[in-house]
Amino acid sequence: MNAIAEFDSLSGREEFRARHIAPSAAEQAAMLAALGLPDRETLIARTVPDAIRLTRRMAIPPARSEAEVLAELAALAAENRSDIKSLIGLGYHGTHVPPVILRNVLENPGWYTAYTPYQAEIAQGRLEALLNFQTMVTELTGMEIANASLLDEGTAAAEAMALALHVQKGGSRLLLAAADCHPQTLAVVETRARPLGITVERVAFADLAASCARKPFGVLVQTPSTTGELRDLAGVIAAAKGAGALAIVAADLLSLALIRPPGEMGADVVVGSAQRFGVPFGYGGPHAAFFATRDAFKRQMPGRLVGVSVDAAGRPALRLALQTREQHIRREKATSNICTAQVLLAVMAGMYAVWHGADGLQRIARRCNLAARIFAAAARDAGFTPRHGAFFDTVTLDCGDRAEALMAAALARGFNLRRVNATDVGVAMDETVTRADLERLTDALGEAAGRSVTLPETADPSIPEGLLRTSRFLRQAVFNSHHAEHEMLRYLKRLEDKDVALNRSMIPLGSCTMKLNATAEMIPITNPGFANIHPFAPAEQARGYRTLITRLEQWLCAVTGFAAVSLQPNAGSAGEYAGLLAIRGFHESRGEGHRDVCLIPTSAHGTNPASAVMAGFRVVAVACDRDGNVDLADLRAKAEANASRLAALMVTYPSTHGVFEEAIAEICAIVHAHGGQVYMDGANMNAQVGLTSPAAIGADVCHLNLHKTFCIPHGGGGPGVGPIGVAAHLAPFLPNHPLVPEAGPASGPGPVASAPWGSAGILPIPYAYIAMMGEEGLREASEVAILNANYIAHRLAPHYPILYRGAHGFVAHECIIDCRGFQASAGVMVEDIAKRLQDYGFHAPTMSWPVAGTLMIEPTESESKAELDRFCDAMIAIRAEIRAIEERRWPIGDNPIKNAPHTAEDVTAEVWTHPYSRQVAVMPLPFVAAAKYWPPVKRVDNVYGDRNLVCTCEPMESYAQAAE
Ligand SMILES: *Cc1c(COP(=O)(O)O)cnc(C)c1O
């Protein structure tokens, strides 16, 4: 080898892959030996059916090193013009991320690698942070109850429409929407309305009240309007209610620090975005949307809701409330398909309010308002007429024939303004605007007007007296205690330490793929070149993003085998919905719009039936056989019975039971033969990448959860990205966007998210992952994920029944263990095992899904053999504990499993009355002591919390009373 070749061979390009895929060659050999297999290829050959194995390599470049990919992403970021300040508005505003939040939340794996807080005892930190968010939203909006975030403002408005449709007394299918709502919000609502047979009529705000005579089920208004106008909404709200409709208000959260909140004007639902509370633009997302309503509608409210309850010792403890509303349980009767939301961003926004408090928020709001008033005064001096006398932070100018001149003069000085139409230009002020900015903007006005204008020293008030907020808000202790940075830093640390995230131990959640979120993948997202780009910035200012998006789409086409990909859906559920809309559009284009039956196996994830209903389909369930496979006879019968109306089958592959079904090609063929399309739920792609593909199995469309397979962290329940891939015949029906034509085909169904590329700000994560793994690395990851799962199945099989296996006795990338027998033998439920794992420092596997009474374990390729062994040791030790109960060495009602988890307070109490030792309680195995995790609360009582629903922090008054 010559010196240069040798030098290249030492580049470390394989190093990332070897760190992401944790088991070393020796560890893999040991696991294969335990399985009695000569090599990995033999395992794969016996796991993935031959008929669907890929014979060709994916068109993905070879691996590059962390340093190379970081440099490439930095170069792409530099092609995005973050030096230009976007004052475009449209629901997206510049903001200063408080550095203490940036570093200790957004850039902190203790927060970003956590899972959705279903296991409440080990999630008290993020549950408290979400309770803060909910409290902040109820306080600012003046509403009674708020959820823990939705995907974005547009989908939140669409969810409000769905709620209004659902709770109305009459049978109306008419929604009236003020024509001056944000255009993308209207478009998302219209997309959602169409398959449900709802008519959305855009009406001028002034005519809305009178139009209520037409008996709509809901009325949607925006405050301030998209062009910035502030109005008293009381009249419209009263008219809506008089007509039996729900009044839905999309509101700017910051404005509510100064303006009388919609709740005080009688609104039924208030939605909006919490983006400007310290969450960067990210070229459109991710940001937390909020949804607040009246107590009367709490059971119809979409999304997750955090509530206060008590633990087994009667101490206050938090957990997700009213979970029976969610799609996991309600399925096709669910009010919404939302699953993954925007937890990490909601945590940030809530902490922004904790950091600033009411006074700080009011200061920021007043400053934005004053900037707008100064600008309006300067504009008048220049001869431009503001369209509205009453405004908060957004001023729209009638520029006559000088609109282009003003846009150009502003751009020359480093600002993007909003070109509202031929004559009008809008400016939205935010907290980042400086005095120097105001001077430059004044200059721009002068240049466009052709006269000299100076920064005015007086500015008229712009908020009418009657619209000023008089009620106080955020008086709860949490918003008044952490204004010193040390207090804030320690508060964030305290909450973080209450939780189990991936930086502590493996989170073996079946179907959720909690794999490594490498630091190198995370670093680019806070680069200003990615973080600070407005979603509606001119295309030439976002070249880096456009290149990244195009390449990522190509790579995901290579992964799925499909012709086209849309990155717009911002969660798996949104991808399902978009994919079904594509199928709908396809049938309609062929004059077969009557096809409306969607077959869904009973084992499907709850989002599947919920999405199908949202897409206007009727759900017909298909049975599964004893082995967990789709019952072919039943499928055939249902397909035949519905042949003339068959629209689609939704199928998860490998199945939700963790097996590569041999009959998958036949399943797809049956559906096609009856005129249907096949939707593949791609949540289990981690078992497929490089080995088989949705196209190879015969599907027509699938979504990918980039927050599962492609390393976007779960963030405690979001953000996610759920792109869909489609075969060529469905490409014309991918989502598009009213403001950005390049985001999708003109023939598409409209947008399914507010931003053209959804949560673009986190796309550098899957980009970096794919680039650093390369084609071979991705394939190897799938193989090792399967190896790790089979090793766990092998170790646990002598202790727990393994529920399903493939034709040759192997599982795919996850395995299900059956815990149902322990109820009769020891009074132990699967939940008890989940809670006991907390004492061992582990997050439980997926519980009771897809089969009640079971645990579904998915280790991923990122866990080393040592960690797999620790987890298996814990599970095996728990089995021994169950045996002690079975043999009545411990009573059924008082044993370490039933009493789990144990807190430090429990075991340090003066008295200890249990028939097992304190050591058994909290240090059951030697490895536990080495890094003991202490659950902060005992078992949380779900029923108590739902009976006594409290979903906000306690008000100041109750703290004061307690102190008295
Ligand atoms: C996670 C998951 C979904 C939903 O994805 P979200 O991103 O949470 O909306 C759908 N189906 C399956 C099988 C899943 O595991």
Automatic annotation (TrEMBL):
Residues 19-444, 473-734 form the Glycine cleavage system P-protein N-terminal domain. GO terms for biological process: glycine decarboxylation via glycine cleavage system. Its EC number is 1.4.4.2. Keywords: Oxidoreductase, Pyridoxal phosphate. It is an enzyme of class 1 (oxidoreductase). Its cofactor is pyridoxal 5'-phosphate. It catalyses: N(6)-[(R)-lipoyl]-L-lysyl-[glycine-cleavage complex H protein] + glycine + H(+) = N(6)-[(R)-S(8)-aminomethyldihydrolipoyl]-L-lysyl-[glycine-cleavage complex H protein] + CO2. The keyword Protein biosynthesis does not apply. The modification N6-(pyridoxal phosphate)lysine is found at residue 708. One of its GO terms (cellular component) is cytosol. Residues 781-902 form the Glycine dehydrogenase C-terminal domain. GO terms for molecular function: glycine binding; glycine dehydrogenase (decarboxylating) activity; pyridoxal phosphate binding. The glycine cleavage system is composed of four proteins: P, T, L and H. Belongs to the GcvP family. The glycine cleavage system catalyzes the degradation of glycine. The P protein binds the alpha-amino group of glycine through its pyridoxal phosphate cofactor; CO(2) is released and the remaining methylamine moiety is then transferred to the lipoamide cofactor of the H protein. This is Glycine dehydrogenase (decarboxylating). The lineage of its organism: Bacteria, Pseudomonadati, Pseudomonadota, Alphaproteobacteria, Acetobacterales.
